[in-house]
Amino acid sequence: MAKLVSTKIKTGVTQKELGARINMKQPQIAKIERMHTLPSFSTLTRYAAALDLSIKMTVESIIK
């Protein structure tokens, strides 16, 4: 989430602008960014795509 928010800030995109790009209201974006709500993978993907980013998931063993 930190990478998404920092990219949003660096590119000068406001929460309101991002919300318009992904069809969400600004308060919803604020809750996600403050981690007051757990966004779905779909929402994270839309958030990233609106900033020309993509989400990459990896699965790794915790046993060495």
Q: Regions with pLDDT < 50 over 5+ consecutive residues?
A: none
Order of helices and strands: HHHH
CA-CA gap between termini: 27 Å
Q: Would you tell me the structural class of the helices and strands?
A: mainly alpha
In oligomeric terms, what are we looking at?
single chain
Number of helices: 4
Overall strand count: 0
Instruction: Specify the biggest β-sheet.
Output: none
The share of residues in helices is: 40-55%
The radius of gyration over CA amounts to 13 Å
* Shape verdict: elongated
> Roughly what is the average pLDDT, rounded to an integer?
93
- Portion of residues in beta strands equals under 5%
Molecular structure report:
By secondary structure, the protein is mainly alpha-helical. The chain is 55% helix and 0% strand. It is built from four helices and no strands. The radius of gyration is 13 Å and the shape is elongated. The chain starts with a helix and ends in a 14-residue tail after the last helix. The mean pLDDT is 93.
In summary, what is this structure?
The chain has 64 residues and is mainly alpha-helical. It is built from four helices and no strands.
Protein topology:
Layout: H1 2-10, H2 15-22, H3 26-33, H4 41-50
